[in-house]
Design goal:
Elements: E1 43-48, H1 60-66, E2 71-74, H2 82-88, E3 93-98, E4 119-126, H3 129-138, E5 147-148, H4 171-181, H5 185-205, H6 210-217
Parallel strand pairs: 1-2, 1-4, 3-4, 3-5
């Protein structure tokens, strides 16, 4: 998995922290030995904005670590990677781009996932909300794909970054919602448990208590 990521140092607040090469958490909070592995009734492809490759708060890595079949490529507006082109042409899968519904592409929306003829491949734009919208809107090679909006039945537990939107969830939560949506409860719960571990370990490494902060923020 590491070879998929560009070798550029993370330069931001926290860049001097010694991190695990795999989970990207501080070494003292490494979750590698506690990460659940699972098989899923679908596959995922992370179309990742280049900024996300360097962020230890990225949650797309949790999808890769939970489901080893997950693939990842760096987003390019004009030049998709050859492996992505190849998988989009594979007649044995049903690729879908994951994004909220809007009127200008309502004809591409899929409401009933059971009608997909083959194993679903969910392509998730991975970045901030603004970056994900850019990936979706400016990748002409994705315009032929059906679009699926995940049904979010839970409040986001992602506290490490804020999108500024109440109902936005992070990449790992999007994948978990899709798994629950297709009825793969075991895989969805495995990912959510890994995500919970990630949140807790990250906060503990900063000397903070996630549950205490959440409790204090409730009326």
């Amino acid at each position: 998995m590491n070879s998929q990521y560009p070798r550029k140092p993370f330069i931001a607040r926290g860049s001097n922290v010694i991190r695990c090469d795999d989970c990207k958490l501080p070494v003292v909070a490494c979750m590698c030995s506690d990460t659940l592995k699972s098989n899923a009734a679908c596959d995922f492809w992370l179309l990742m904005h280049h900024d996300e490759f360097y962020k230890p708060t990225n949650t797309g890595r949790l999808i890769q670590r939970t489901f080893p079949s997950t693939q990842c490529s760096r987003w390019s507006r004009l030049e998709p990677t050859e492996d992505l082109i190849s998988v989009l042409a594979n007649p044995r899968i049903s690729p879908c781009i994951v994004f909220p519904e809007a009127p200008d592409y309502s004809d591409r929306m899929i409401k009933d996932l059971s009608k997909l003829p083959n194993r679903p491949l969910f392509i998730i734009p991975d970045g901030t909300w603004r970056q994900a919208r850019r990936i979706f809107r400016h990748s002409r090679y994705l315009d032929v794909l059906p679009v699926i909006e995940p049904t979010i039945l839970f409040d986001s537990r992602y506290k490490l970054r804020s999108s500024g939107e109440e109902r936005h969830v992070c990449t790992a939560e999007v994948a978990a919602a899709l798994l629950l949506q297709i009825g793969d409860i075991e895989a969805g719960n495995a990912l959510l448990q890994n995500f919970e571990t990630f949140n807790q370990r990250y906060y503990e490494s900063k000397g903070r208590n996630l549950n205490a902060e959440e409790g204090a923020s409730k009326p």
